[in-house]
Amino acid sequence: MKVLIVDDEEIERIGLSTILTRNFPNIEVKQSRNAQVAIDMIETFLPDLILMDIKMPGMNGLDAIKLIHSKFPQIKFIMITAYAKFDYAQTALKLGVKDYLLKPSKTSEIIKTVGEALKQIEEERVLLATSTQQYNVLKKALPIVEADVVTQLLFDHVHNKQTEELIDLFDMKMGKRNFVMSLILPKGSERFYSTIRERIRELECGYVGALYGRQLPIIVFRDGKKTFRSQVVSLARGILTIPNREDRKGWFIGIGNVYESVDQLRQSYQESLIATKDTDLHVNFRFYSDSPPMSTGVNGRNFKELEKRFFEQIRNGQWEEVSKNVMALIRRLETEGRDLLQSQQRVLELLWIASRVLNELGVEHESPLYSSEVLNYRQLQYETDLLLQRLWDSYVNHYNQLEDDTIQQIKQYIIENSHLAVSLESIAEKVSLSPIYISKLFKEQLGVNYITFLTECRIEKAKKLMMDMDKSLKEITFEVGYQDPNYFSKVFKKLCGVSPTEYRRSLMGINR
Fold it and tell me: Does the entry feature the keyword DNA-binding, yes or no (predicted)?
């Protein structure tokens, strides 16, 4: 540590310097004969503690402290004064003055006063180092949490309250109005994922989800200073210029509508996917609002509602319902006397949605395409049924390959790694499944989402560690995977009904 002694009396400076160097061998001491010389020295010497005489020729000590404190608020001060009582003591405390020494002072008083100040500085250093380490851990974990939050917001496989807690913990600010962009990447473009995520983070304009197959969802905050289209065009171009011209082939962005509520982001996501259905355009992006108008169905239910149901039915594996709805649509189009070619296109749009959702779930399959232009509605039904069957077979074959104990593998992985930044992406990599399917599987088979299970694992581990009275609650916080003791305490109390401190007291048989 570095200490600066500022006093116009040379004998005082030498005496203090001698006492400090003899009793505190790990400090570096320098002297200054007045306030102005001290101010000139600070930028190069950067002292941790200044012993400042108050009465000096020229600038007095208190004015010097004010000036130094305004530029270097981290520096601590001990005032040197000949008066036990002084009317500026309250002002001095606000400026970082920790204590004062009377002239003349006993050696023991000097050692005690300076020793306490140095101890406080050391404690603050340790706290700062710990805070910096925690911040770096949080910063490193942020992309993982960010991708999980996007997954939860868009697919609703987790309770909203837990999503809100994650957003609060990582200070993830959502915009008042938001929309979703879906980026479609060709095979081999996965290597650009981290670059895309960094580009969005640099712009501070949204959050990037996990890469599902070839699809990358991005939640974008609406910028009220720009028109919607100018904001999207600027951002789309910023993303599409990441690869070179050759690598850019096959890149396409679909843009959903803007919504006020976070709960409506799922709708914007579905719209963004639908907007990518025709990638053979002269541009590499398309707004959902520019998609051709859809047909109106029976009972006032329009085609967009049918699309929305399709997303959910396919994600849930309700293929009988999917087939029933598609065939009902074909019969309705025939009854309404619709043009056969247009009807074929409408049905193909639904099959295309099914294809996109299967990609989302990590199911590989051939794109659904009619072999030729159909000649009548009966042929349309027949060929549509064949395409649906192929999609269904791909879905079944994919999940038949899963081991029976997949959910147990996932549970065991979470239990063994609960102290780490476990995410849907890390689990997906472990068991070779899509993050969305894992979230869905967990909810269906265990009745809880994976974050709830992860939290329970961490709290149970914390309870066991609390039996070791030599471990502090702060140490336990970090050991079970949390980086913020306050957040850990909040989560613990929510699950256990008591705070960690109260729980530990109960283990010791202490009521209060």
Answer: yes
